[in-house]
Amino acid sequence: MARNLDMTALRSFVAVSDAGGVTRAAGFLNLTQSAVSMQIKRLEEALDLQLLDRTERKVKLTASGEQLLGYARRILSLNDEVYARMTAQEYEGEVVVGVPHDIVYPAIPLVLNRFARDFPRVKVQLISSYTMRLREMFRRGDVDIILTTEDRCGPTGETLTELPLVWVGAIGGTAWRQRPLRLAYEHTCIFRQGVQAALDRAGIPWVMTVESDSSRTVEASVSADLAVHTSVDGALPPYVERIQHGGALPDLKTTQINLYASDLADGPVIGALAELIRQAYRAS
After folding, report:
1. What tens digit of pLDDT does each residue of 131-141 get?
2. How far is CA 196 from CA 100, 219, 222, 242, in A?
3. Radius of gyration (Cα) for the chain, nearest Å?
4. Topology of domain 93-283, per CATH?
């Protein structure tokens, strides 16, 4: 006898994997945490498999969960494609979104995935750049929505959250212990001057070991334990970790995550995307 997988449970399972936890996934899905947990439990019972490793603070997939994830993405993708092609869709066109590279993860992939389901005929162009350039592009009308990292919000924007900067280094690395402290930053990073000033106030000598226009170069250098960097808390790049320095490095300032959305576009598309972004940050 054929058995069917619960599509809603599959979608919750993928969301938990992408979000790194039940709480964030629940906020993004507009469900309660207990509802998402129940859906995952039903999926595990249906398959008679444990899909999530719940022994650590951050939820991880088991080997069975990793195997299911690929199938789940394909099933949901086909499901969404069928609905998109077989039902009339009112809205078409393109929306341009600008996000600083250091806050693309973890929220933006979830947002774009949900938006693509709601507006399958709207093309999304994602531009990753630094805040000053994104503000200028928004002023010129080159982008419809931007996120920024700023000390204060501009008159046409709204602050979604305020998060601390944290020190990051290679996993298990020791570069943070060395003096002068070796730093790695992009030329256009708005945080670097504040970090340097904080080190100067703390009397910690430093040297800019890596300067680049590429965030990938900086991330590779940090993950290789050649230098340290700073990131917005909760948006750490892969292959690095927050440095548990025990006060050996100075505390850093907070930064606002601000949203700017154009009010010139017709229809609900821009507003719907902006609301998905708000939901993603409320769930974080």
Report:
1. 999 999 998 88
2. 21, 19, 17, 18
3. 21
4. D-Maltodextrin-Binding Protein; domain 2 (3.40.190)
Query: Contact 274/138 with Cβ under 8 angstroms?
Result: no
pLDDT beyond 90 at 188:
no
Where along the chain do its domains lie?
5-85, 93-283
The CATH class that applies to domain 5-85 reads mainly alpha
Q: What is the pLDDT of residues 31-78, one digit of tens each?
A: 888 999 999 999 999 999 999 988 776 788 999 999 999 999 999 888
User: From start to end of the chain, where are the E strands?
Assistant: 52-53, 60-61, 93-99, 122-128, 145-150, 158-170, 181-186, 206-212, 229-232, 240-242, 254-261
Phi, psi (deg, nearest 5) at residue 144:
-95, -35
Task: Give me the sign of the Cα torsion angle 15, 16, 17, 20.
Answer: positive
Per DSSP, helices labelled H in 119-264 are 131-140, 192-202, 215-223
Residues 36 and 26: beta-carbon distance below 8 Å: yes
CA dist., res. 242 & res. 235, Å (int): 10
User: On the CB side of 62, how many CA atoms lie within 13 Å of its CA?
Assistant: 9
Q: What angle do CA 187, 190, 192 make, to 5 degrees?
A: 70
Residue with tokens 């730093």: 183
User: Which residue spans within 174-284 are E strands per DSSP?
Assistant: 181-186, 206-212, 229-232, 240-242, 254-261
Beta bridge partners of 207: 182
**DSSP letter, residue 156:** T
